[in-house]
Specification:
The structure holds 2 protein chains of 2 kinds. The N terminus of chain A is likely disordered. By secondary structure, chain A is an alpha/beta fold. Chain A has 13 helices and 14 strands. Chain B is mainly α. Chain B starts with a helix and ends in a 5-residue tail after the last helix. The chains are: A alpha/beta, B mainly alpha.
Chain lengths: 386, 314
């Protein structure tokens, strides 16, 4: 019976909290968010949620938006597209939000889109794949640069080094797969030839056989590794163990100190496209993004005690673009806010400078979204001229 | 009470009343969506319950059949221009055939070995769905066209609520009839003792295989409904966690209780939604509540409660 009493108490506290929230809700602007806070994509959802909470509090402390406080409703879809769809319906039907940020993954985003297209409520996704904004959907926007742009950045760097024949070794997870498909599309446009492609599973612990095949393929001048998590670090180590001398390119999926730590000395000389946030303190003072990313990185570190991750930056940009749009619209009416989001021009965020238009619901250019970095002495350095 | 639940007409009538009455308490399309999801999962759980509760065989890979059904209605209309309802039938037949091929060797195993073998099957389906990206869209999943029935587009959570509710009733009636048939009694005999059942002249392997196929078809249809309802499907529909969720629904509702399937599905679909007020502790709270259920209602919600109501029978 003891246990039952405790449960009753817990339920009572929960109910009281719920009632309390209900009271506050009057005359507030409700913003929804569906994020993968737990589950396999929690490395995305966790910093995103923290970022949103930090900045919603900050905005409210400064008096809110158009004289009204923001109220953030966050649901955790655990990277399950079926739950994401249910929470989308809930945000629209029950919580009556005016706009939604998230979800963290492409699969969840694609499942949620029809709900917002039907309900005429703007959605700003934090997921990567280009299919979210191509074709353009009236109510759907996103903030992270696409993997197409990462491929373009890598190929541009290759061409500046007069390298045109490459090999791919990609992960079979969502990230690696999507980027590999996009790199194939971009390659044929810019005149780069993909000589061969190998794949590895997300939990594989040795990529020597795949890399040996690539080494023995004649004509390969550089190797690109679209991948995520620990896979790219293993590829990098195996690459050096096999003594392959060709330039190695990693993707924006491993723009974290964790990668350098895992790959160790093998990471020396590896190049990869990353957003400004990763090298906030190394950006030249003339870079328009410098104040924004330095401030965001510092705030996030102070409030959470964790190192800043690029994923939180996506949420920062989404929230700020949304708040700016509400201010310009002088309203929180979903239709008016949507029109203003689409008119976002010259917004400087963590992911780059955003210029949206009716035909571009991302608004990032390759040059502002990515810097080409090279790893030297266990740290990032900017490759000159990028 | 026990006798009322045991007879065939009353549960059916009660179920029909639940399906019709529930919307009176709904305030928005969100509630209809939750209701529809409960019936869709309950359909899969009824099938799995036949296997687990009546035949006593554990399957940890049943989401694999959910996945086959789901991707059948996604791939059929997209690549072969088949109507969605026909794709659903193709998916069901395919699931039946796969269950037949997989079940023959697997069902010779017992206990933990059977559980591990079915687990392997479920994981296999999820891997194929993830890796065959040209057909399935890979980990990001693929869009599913709307279901058209006689030129009428099935669209909206309320419509799906009625369709899923009606389908669940049909599935419920079929399952209840099966349980009460000679086959059903043979299955319960297998559950109690395979050796004794064999002594009575029951073809144990054949009966087990039949019920495995039936439960696979239930899961496949539920998977097709889920895909058509959501309009987008990702490989996590066939994932290991989904399989566990289905087993949890069976155990929570009550093994061997057809009605328990609905209760189990309802609890595990509705609770996570109700617990979002606990924010970071929702998973822990969910686990705690399930533990309390299993400690105080050991045989599952429906059998324990109906036994408690008719205390004289125990």
């Amino acid at each position: 019976m003891r246990a039952l009493q405790h449960i009753a108490m817990a339920a009572g506290v929960g109910l009281a909290a719920l009632v309390g929230m209900g009271h506050q809700a009057s005359a507030q602007i409700k913003i929804g968010a569906v994020l993968s806070v737990t589950g396999p994509a929690s490395f995305l959802g966790d910093p995103e949620k923290k970022t949103l909470q930090i900045y919603v509090d900050e905005i409210n402390a400064k008096g809110g938006v158009n004289g009204q406080k923001l109220e953030l409703v966050v649901y955790d879809d655990a990277a399950n597209s079926n739950s994401a769809r249910t929470f989308a319906t809930r945000l629209v039907e029950q919580d009556k939000v005016v706009a939604v940020i998230g979800p963290s993954t492409t699969g969840s985003t694609m499942a949620m889109i029809p709900v917002f297209e039907d309900a005429h409520i703007p959605l700003i996704s934090l997921a990567g794949a280009v299919q979210i904004i191509e074709p353009v959907r009236k109510w759907v926007f996103k903030t992270p640069a696409t993997d197409t742009m990462a491929c373009e950045k890598i190929f541009a760097d290759l061409k500046s080094r007069k390298l045109t024949q490459v090999a791919l070794i990609s992960g079979t997870d969502a990230f690696g797969k999507s980027m590999s498909v996009e790199c194939h599309k971009v390659a044929s446009k810019v005149g780069v030839r993909i000589m061969t492609e190998e794949t590895y599973g997300p939990r594989d612990s040795d990529m020597t056989p795949q890399l040996t095949k690539i080494r023995d393929t004649p004509g390969v001048q550089a190797v690109i590794n679209p991948g995520f998590g620990q896979g790219p670090a293993i590829v990098t180590r195996n690459y050096r163990q096999l003594g392959i001398k060709l330039p190695l390119y990693q993707s924006h999926g491993v723009c974290s100190k964790q990668y350098i730590k895992l790959a160790g000395e093998a990471a020396e000389g590896v190049r990869l496209p990353c957003s400004s946030l990763v090298i906030a303190d190394k950006l030249p003072a003339s870079d328009p993004q410098k104040p924004v990313v330095v401030d965001y990185a510092r705030t996030f570190q102070q409030k959470t005690g964790q190192a800043v991750a690029t994923f939180g930056g996506h949420a920062y940009d989404a929230l700020m673009i949304l708040v700016d749009a509400m201010k310009r619209a002088k309203s929180s009416d979903p239709a008016k806010v949507r029109d203003e989001i689409e008119k976002t021009k010259g917004f400087i965020g963590a992911d780059g400078v955003v210029n949206m238009s009716p035909s571009d619901h991302l608004g990032l250019s390759v040059s502002s979204a990515f810097h080409m970095l090279e790893i030297k002495h266990g740290d990032w350095t900017l490759v000159p001229g990028t | 009470m026990q006798r009322v639940l045991d007879s065939r007409i009353w549960p059916l009538a009660a179920l029909a009343v639940i399906v019709v009455i529930a919307p009176l308490f709904f305030s928005s399309l969100y509630d209809y969506r939750i209701g529809a999801l409960v019936f869709i999962f309950a359909l899969a759980v009824v099938g799995l319950n036949l296997l687990m509760g009546f035949a006593g065989q554990v399957s940890l890979g049943h989401a694999g059949f959910l996945g086959i059904g789901a991707y059948a209605v996604a791939i059929g209309p997209t690549y072969f221009a088949l109507p969605a309802w026909f794709s659903l039938l193709v998916g069901a037949v395919l699931s039946g055939i796969v269950a037949f091929l997989v079940g023959r060797p697997i069902l010779k195993l017992k206990g933990h070995y059977l559980a591990v073998a079915t687990l392997g099957f479920g994981v296999l389906v999820a891997i194929v769905l993830t890796n065959e990206a040209d057909w399935t869209g890979g980990p990001d999943g693929m869009n599913v066209a709307h279901l058209m029935l006689f030129g009428w587009k099935v669209h909206g959570s309320d419509t799906w609520y009625w369709l899923a509710g009606a389908t669940f009733i049909v599935g419920f009636v079929l399952a209840a009839n099966l349980v009460d048939s000679p086959s059903g009694r043979a299955l319960q005999a297998i559950h109690d003792s395979e050796t004794a059942a064999r002594m009575l002249g029951i073809d144990v392997a054949r009966k087990k295989l039949t019920i495995f196929i039936v439960s696979a078809i239930y899961a496949s249809v539920a998977g097709s409904y889920l895909a058509l309802f959501d309009g987008h499907i990702t490989p996590d529909v066939a994932g290991f966690l989904r399989s566990i969720e289905l087993v949890a629904m069976v155990v929570l509702g009550g093994m061997g209780s057809v009605f328990g399937a609905l209760v189990g599905a309802a609890v595990l679909v509705v609770l996570p939604q109700a617990l979002t007020v606990f924010h970071d502790y929702e998973q822990a709270t969910l686990g705690l509540i399930i533990m309390v259920f299993m400690i105080f209602l050991r045989r599952g919600i429906v059998p324990s409660l109906s036994a408690a109501f008719s205390g004289w029978r125990r």
